[in-house]
Design a protein that fits this description.
It is a single chain. The chain is an alpha+beta fold. The chain is built from three helices and four strands; from the N terminus they run H-E-E-E-H-E-H.
């Protein structure tokens, strides 16, 4: 009986509702990111420093995936198709939020980029 209850609890915890979605519609839970650093990068296609740093963030996301979660935010408010084009143009390999998460973290949205 205890094994059955534990199995049900494990299965239910795996079915938790995502906290946010990326531009491709994949859901993510912050609970799955616990004990990792969360690095959120705001970027834009017209931002020179952003263009240069994307490869570094791709490297961090790939090389340190056990310790760091890299997520992106398109600084420009664009539709999904344009966002996907921007992601491809920038060569972004990490997930990009479908919606800006600043309210979730109770912080001000950046007004400028580097």
């Amino acid at each position: 009986m205890k094994l059955l209850i534990m199995t049900i609890l494990v299965l239910l915890s795996a079915c938790q509702k995502p906290n946010f979605y990326d531009v491709n519609g994949r859901g993510y839970s912050y609970a799955n990111m616990e004990e990792k650093w969360l690095l959120i990068n705001y970027w834009a296609t017209w931002c020179g420093p952003c263009i240069k740093e994307i490869s570094e963030f791709n490297g961090i996301a790939n090389d340190f995936e056990d310790a760091v979660v890299v997520l992106g935010v398109n600084f420009e408010s664009v539709d999904r198709a344009t966002n996907e084009e921007h992601i491809e143009k920038m060569g972004i390999e990490f997930p990009v939020y479908a919606e800006d998460p600043y309210e979730h973290f109770n912080v001000d949205r950046p007004v400028v980029l580097p």
